[in-house]
Design goal:
This protein has 276 residues and is mostly helical. The protein is built from 16 helices and no strands. The protein has helices spanning 10-14, 24-33, 40-48, 51-61, 75-82, 84-103, 107-124, 130-139, 142-150, 152-165, 169-177, 181-191, 196-204, 215-230, 246-252, 256-270. α5 packs across α6 (84-103) and α7 packs across α14 (215-230). The longest helix has 20 residues, at 84-103.
């Protein structure tokens, strides 16, 4: 199948609420989170007025992913405690949960593992807002979801080429789309007015040395992605474990014991029910 220059489709991708392939829930969420001056009250009202959505958001917040087991009882409480951007990210995460399960078997488990590992590493490093890094880990492969939804056959070809040619899924994406899922994730996170730190992670989690705004957070998600792959958790589009960027690894300064701790907490957390 002929390749697609996804850059010429950027405007189409950014306006996902107009794409016929995108489920209604994601369209609605996209419309609210991209508002220029979204307030805490508006977001709380939007989520609270949809009982099913509110329940899923609270389940995720109170799950092992974020480490608040049963402590957050309302959406307004969650927003006050975690902040607007984290709850926007969690809201987006819950909306793509079912989509990920349908479009690529194992992608949700991979993303969830990355979110947990990212949070644990951020806590070990003493970052002030580890939940923001966890959201970045959860959403780092969002671009894959959009590419699969809109260009299913081309993405199937990318996955096949990755395996048959022994190349990373990002390299296969470049062959078929001229760009990678990281670029698509960056475009969307910019459109949705996410903070610069999250945009940097989305754009550079496979090339962390290029991160300028959030090099440490990007290094965390980069390493978490590789750690999850190495443990065989889920599926991210290819069967390979890429090399860790040495500069990023040096920046993290994780000991062998730290890495064992991250793996243990990630695996314990993933053993708990995650039906959002």
């Amino acid at each position: 199948m002929a390749s697609i220059d996804i850059r010429t489709h950027r405007n189409k991708i950014e306006n996902i609420s107009a794409l016929p392939t995108v489920p209604g829930t994601l369209k609605r969420i996209s419309s609210i989170i991209e508002k220029p001056r979204l307030t805490l009250e508006e977001l709380s009202h939007f989520v609270s007025n949809d009982p099913a959505l509110a329940s899923r958001v609270l389940k995720m917040i109170n799950s092992a992913v974020y480490g608040f087991p049963g402590r957050i009882s309302s959406v307004s409480h969650a927003i006050m405690l975690l902040g607007l951007n984290v709850v926007k990210g969690i809201l987006l995460g819950t909306s793509i949960f079912e989509i990920m399960q349908k479009v690529m078997k194992g992608l949700w488990d991979h993303s969830l593992g990355c979110a947990i590992a990212s949070r644990v590493i951020a806590e070990k490093l003493g970052l002030k807002y580890p939940e923001e890094v966890s959201v970045a880990g959860l959403l780092h492969d969002l671009g894959k979801v959009i590419l699969i939804l809109e260009y299913q056959e081309n993405y199937d070809d990318s996955i096949r080429d990755a395996t048959e040619k022994g190349i990373a899924i990002s390299e296969a994406e470049k062959i078929h789309f001229q760009e990678t899922h990281a670029a698509v994730g960056m475009w969307l996170s910019q459109k949705w007015r996410f903070p610069a730190n999250l945009i940097d992670v989305m754009a550079f989690h496979h090339s962390p040395a290029a991160a300028k705004v959030a090099p440490l957070e990007t290094a965390i998600v980069h390493f978490s992605d590789i750690l999850v792959r190495a443990r065989g958790i889920g599926f991210a589009g290819d069967p390979f474990v890429p090399a860790v960027n040495p500069v990023s690894f040096e920046m993290l300064r994780l000991s062998d014991g730290d890495i064992r701790d991250v793996l243990a907490e990630m695996e314990d957390s993933l053993e708990q029910p995650t039906d959002f």
